Amino acid sequence: MDVIRNWFQELYDSTGLNFSVFYDAYDWNRYVGGLKMTLFLSVTSILLSLVIGAAGALIQGGASKIARMAVNAFVVVFRNTPPLVQIFFFYFGLGTLMPSIEGGGMRVPLLNNTQWAVISLSLFAGAFNVEIFRSGIEAVPRTTVEAAEALGYTRIKAYIHIVLPLAIRVCLPALNNNLVNLLKTTTLAYAIAVPETLYAIKQIWSESQNVLEMMIVLLATYGILVGVLVWLMQRWERAMHIPGYGR
User: How does pLDDT run across 111-135, given as a tens digit for each residue?
Assistant: First the structure.
């Protein structure tokens, strides 16, 4: 680490290129803190959106007309409104209606900005995942479901153990794209002061006046994060592939 730190310090001294996050401990800690928050937002929102998508697709195929209409309304609203507007609605709109609690001798909101960001991002991506899972479920042959029912599976068990695993194999490419978009959308949490990567880097360049260098670091950071996610999704897709199915 000392070699890297010294090299970037010499680069700054000789060329004026100020990549302060690589030689200044204070800037480095802020950058790492922002990166950790981005990873937290991404992982949490991805997992919750997958649960929302799977549950919504199950309800869409259910017998209750009211439940189907509710899921369809949810999908329409969250797919057709900007994610930034949704974040503002939850944080500034619903957030003002939530009760406050005592904390450190003062009243604090029941949900903080990070929690609202997770909720908003999860619902936004979950609305797309509902349709993605639904398309995968519709691709599963009806005879497969009937065979499961003939073996004594209940509708829920057949969905969890047979239909959903097959549907995921069909919809993984579309799911991959949606989750990549979700990772990139986490930057919108900056708008409600969630200290993620963009927020941290904005603070650094505001103080050090090194906008170009920090934008390069920011672009490289998200390029690496997206690349890792795509690599993981492709490995998952290959691991779940059944020869002759879903191709």
Answer: 899 999 999 999 999 999 999 998 8
pTM: 0.88
Domain for residue 89, yes or no? yes
**Structural tokens at position 133:** 């899972």
| pLDDT digit string, tens, across residues 76-95 | 999 999 999 999 999 999 98
Domain that holds residue 96: 33-240
Q: Which residues contact 115 (CB under 8 A, 6 or more apart)?
A: none
CA 35 – CA 27 distance, rounded (Å): 12
Per-residue pLDDT of 129-184, as tens digits, reads: 999 998 888 888 888 877 887 888 887 888 888 888 888 888 888 888 999 999 99
**Which residues neighbour 158 within 8 Å (Cβ) at sequence distance 6 or greater?**
145, 148, 149
> What is the number of domains present in the chain?
1
Is 153 within the bounds of a domain?
Answer: yes
Residue with tokens 């189907």: 68
Question: Shortest CA distance to 24 belongs to which of 37, 12, 14, 38?
Answer: 12
- The CATH code of the domain that includes 217 is 1.10.3720.10
In this model, does residue 104 exceed pLDDT 70? Answer: no
Residue 90 maps to a domain: yes
Instruction: Count Cβ neighbours within 10 Å for each residue of 10-20 and write b for 16 or more, e otherwise.
Output: ebbeeeeebbb
